Structure formats: structure tokens, C-alpha cells
Amino acid sequence: MKEAQQQQQRKQELIKIGYEFLLIALLSTVVTLIFSYWIEPLLGLDDNYPMPVRILVILAIVAFFVSKNKEDSWKLLGLRMPQKKLRFFLVLFGLIFFKLFFFGPILDSIIQLFNLQPADYSSFAFIEGNTPLLISFLVLSWTNGAFAEEMIFRGYLMNRLGKIFGNKQRYTILLVLLIQAVIFGMFHMYQGVTGVVTTTFVGLLMGIAYVLSGKNLWVPIIVHGLVDTASFIIIYNSGIPS
Questions:
Q1: Among 45, 101, 151, 207, which residue has the fewest nearby CB atoms (within 10 Å)?
Q2: Of 33-37, 39-43, 121-125, 130-134, where does the model show the most confidence?
Q3: Per-residue DSSP letters for 202-230?
Q4: Could you tell me which residues come within 8 angstroms of residue 86 by beta carbon, excluding any fewer than 6 positions away?
Q5: Cα(210)–Cα(147) distance, integer angstroms
Q6: Reported pTM
Q7: Which pLDDT tens digit goes with each residue over 126-153?
């Protein structure tokens, strides 16, 4: 009897999450299309603004769902001060260290193994030597990139998937990590196949850090912001890396 009730609750949760994801996809796509084909030409903006707009729309919808769900809160999803500070800083600096010294060589080996083309970062080429644009994209790297994307993919998506598959078993945690990483990677299709592969591994890395930190979202937010900031400064100084 208890098992049947659990299955029914899981089914209802799955339907609810499916509805949320469908609404997010539909509304974010509609708003992006409106912005791309109407507002952008009207204001004379370039082609790089729809992505930040889309992320903000998704974050707004996520915020609505979180506020309507009594079981959720921004604090429960990870926006809280670290209770175990040593654990927090070990994971934070461990992630930074891995990203600096190991992530690049591992990714380069995968790219060479499968003979992939370099990731397409050409959409950011106009930042080179342009100080006002650099400043605006540094702001976006912390608001849209670090905060919004980590809240959507790690805070919201991982916890929603965890309700379906369960949060305690190791194989379900691994499944949740893989699913959110793949979705995160596909969200960056504008960077080409290698860009999708790269951001999928980044999503996996951020997800692991989120779990290891006790689901404290500030760890992936800080690292995400630092990585994007460094990338934009490199592009500003030297152009798109070859």
C-alpha cells in the first residue's frame, strides 16, 4: 500500500515537473523569438542579446515555481551561508584548482581523441578591445552566467530531478548529475559540437561540486563567474583563442 502511494506521488511529481519544463521551454522560446525578430532590430542590437534575455526569462519562471512550491525555497536550493565552512572552502578551492590545472588537458585529450573542431566562440569576438562591451559582459557573466544558470541547472533542475529519481541512492545521484549536465551542454549549442561537449563537462563538474558542498549553490556560482570573467578578459586582450 505504501509502495503504491509512493509510486502515485512520484507519477504526480513527474507530471508536475514535465509541465514546468514544458512551460519554461515554450515561454523562453517565444520571448527569445520576439526579442530576436522584433525588439532587437527595433533597438539596433547585435545578435548576442537573445541568450541573456532567454536566461532571465527562464530564471523568472523558475522563481515563480519556487515561490509557489511550499517544499522549496531559495535557501533549500542552495542560496545560503555555508554551515560547514571548511567543507565549503575545500570544495570551492578544489574546484578552482581542478579547473585551472586538469580540466583543460583532459578536455584537449578528448577533443584530439575524437578529432573535434575547436569550440565556436565567435559570437564573443566583438568584445576584443572594446572596454564598454567587456564591462557589460563581465556584469552578464555574474548575473546571467553565474547566478542565473547555476540557479536554473544546479539549484532548480537537480533538485527537481532528485524528486523523481530519489536523492539518497548513489546511482540516482549520478543519473541526475548526467542529465543536468547534458541539458546544460545542449543549451550551449551555439558554440558547436565541441562547445556542447565542453559545457557538458563543465555542467558535470559544477554539479559534482554542488553535491560535495552539501548543495550550497555559492560554490558553482563563484567558480562559474570567475571562469567566465577570465574568458572575457582573455578575449578582450587577445581575441578568440585559436
A1: 101
A2: 130-134
A3: HHHHHHHHHHHTTS-THHHHHHHHHHHHH
A4: none
A5: 13
A6: 0.85
A7: 889 989 888 988 988 898 889 988 988 9
